[in-house]
Design brief:
With 101 residues, the chain is mostly helical. It is built from 4 helices and no strands. The longest helix has 33 residues, at 8-40.
């Protein structure tokens, strides 16, 4: 372990970045994979890459504790800002990769 010291407000802002965006993306990734699989009529699980398999294992572990995720998301006063910035970054990235239309 590495001890990090900060004041409470800095900690909350850092955790909004580290946890709120991370949880948002893991939950959205899981939802997007399922939705796209249905829409495109494919079983994506047959084609899962090593890196996606690792990511999905993390998503399952984190999202298996929805009460913890909800508590983190609802009690951190900076979480909504971090989520909004995360969504904006996702939109920008989609546009850079050829659009999302």
């Amino acid at each position: 372990f590495r001890v990090v010291t900060s004041d409470a407000d800095y900690h909350d802002r850092a955790m909004a970045v580290v946890q709120a965006i991370h949880h948002l993306y893991l939950a959205a990734l899981t939802r997007a994979l399922e939705r796209a699989s249905r829409e495109l009529g494919v079983d994506y699980s047959r084609f899962v890459t090593h890196s996606l398999k690792s990511t999905l294992a993390v998503a399952e572990r984190v999202m298996h504790q929805p009460e913890v995720v909800r508590e983190i998301q609802s009690t951190n006063r900076y979480a909504a800002i971090a989520r909004w910035l995360g969504v904006e970054a996702m939109r920008e990235t989609a546009e850079e990769l050829g659009g999302a239309s």
